[in-house]
Each structure stands twice: as C-alpha cells, then as structure tokens.
Amino acid sequence: MFRYIFSTLVSGLFLFYGITTLIFATPDNFINISLIEYSEKFNTFFYQRWGFFAPPPQSNDRLYYVFEKKENKGEIIVYEVIEPLLKQKSSNAPFNGNEDLIDYLISNSIYLITDGIRAVRESYEYEAKLKNKKINEFELTKKVNKVIESTKPFKTLLNYSKKVALNNKIEYDDYNVYLKITQTKVPKFIDRYKKNFKENEQLIFDSSN
Question: 10-residue block means of pLDDT along the chain (209 residues)?
Fold first, then answer.
C-alpha cells in the first residue's frame, strides 16, 4: 500500500514538472504570457538553459551598473560585471563555488528579465491591437520597465550593486544606481580571430529610462 502511494506521488510530481516545463519552456504564447507571474517563480527554482539540447548561443550578455552621483549628475561611474566575474571564476577553478553561485544568480536574473521584457511587450502590443490603438514606443518602454522593475530578478540584480559598490570603494548611499543589460553577437567560428570583426552591442534593458 505504501509503495503504491509513494509511486503514485512520484509519478504525479514528474507529470506536474513535465507539464509546467512544457508550458514555460515553449516560445511565448497566450498561455505562458498570461502566466508570467508564475513563470518567474518556476524559473527561480527550476531554471534551465537547455545547453545540452540547444545550438551554441548566438549572443553574450553584459550587465552594467551605472552609479550616478546624487549631488552631481555629471559624475558617473560604470562597471560591467559579467566579464570580470567569468575571468575570476576561471582563474579560481576548481575552488570557484562562490563565483559559480553568483554567476548562476546573475545569469538566471538576466534570462528572466530579457524573457519577461519580450512577454510583457507582446502582451501590451496584443492589447493595443485588440483596441485598435497606435503604440507609442516611448510610453511602451516605460510601461514594460515599470513591470520589470517590480520583479524579483530585477531586485536581485539591484541588490548585487551593493557588493559592486563595496568592492570598488563607492559610498553606495551617495549614488543613484541604474542597470543596463546588453547583448553582443557571438562571432562565427571563421570570424573568431579576425582583427577587424565588429562586436555590435545591442541595448536590451535600461532602468534609467
């Protein structure tokens, strides 16, 4: 009897996990856009990039922290954190558990934010289409940013800015902090060692907007 209950429970859990993974891992559609709140929670605990099953990444993420002096708006300090983190992670291997955890938190948060931006934009665009309203790109960006800045992934990255400030001896309370997420295209293998290869950087998210 116990074995039957246990096997039924395990089977039910696997079935639930399989269905939720199918919903949230598929391309954006009406169902997963309407469940974006639950998608955030799902990815927090079951985040996966499907690296073994997907082709190589087409772009690299970059995360910038912009520190703007409150008393002097012209005084700005900018730090990109992913590249130095990956270098530190590589140099400290195999004793890089701390860097590995930070990399996981940052990568997961960036993934959720970029995915959330696309889903929220499509939701607003679909709503505007139903109402036959013209979309104002500036207003749409502000609406999307407002939603993103209320999410846990954004707050996680914002909290990490305190560590960045501490490591660089910045008086955190004296500055306004903004986040910028960008992507750069990964060069094709044949272009990887070309000196004239241009690395175009595309802005994905800017909390100062």
Answer: 67 63 52 55 56 63 96 92 92 88 92 92 89 89 93 94 95 96 78 63 91
∠ CA 61-65-67 to the nearest 5 degrees? Answer: 165
Structural domain boundaries of the chain? 57-206
- Nearest by Cα to 33 from 96, 125, 171, 155: 125
Determine if the peptide bond prior to 27 is cis (ω within 30°). Answer: no
What pLDDT does residue 144 have? 93
pTM, whole model, 2 decimals?
A: 0.71
Residue 161: the pLDDT is 97
Report d(CA 31, CA 24) in Å as an integer. 9
Q: If we measure between CA atoms, which residue out of 138, 119, 146, 101 comes closest to residue 30? A: 119
| Separation in Å, CA 1 to CA 5, 6, 19, 81, 157 | 6, 9, 27, 54, 48
pLDDT at 52: 47
| Edge-first strand listing for the sheet containing 201-206 | 76-80, 59-69, 175-185, 201-206
What's the pLDDT at 10? 64
CA dihedral of 110, 115, 116, 119, whole degrees rounded to 10: 170
User: Could you give the CA distance from residue 3 to residue 40 in angstroms, rounded to a whole number?
Assistant: 34
Alpha helices in the chain (DSSP H): 2-25, 30-34, 36-46, 82-91, 97-130, 137-148, 152-167
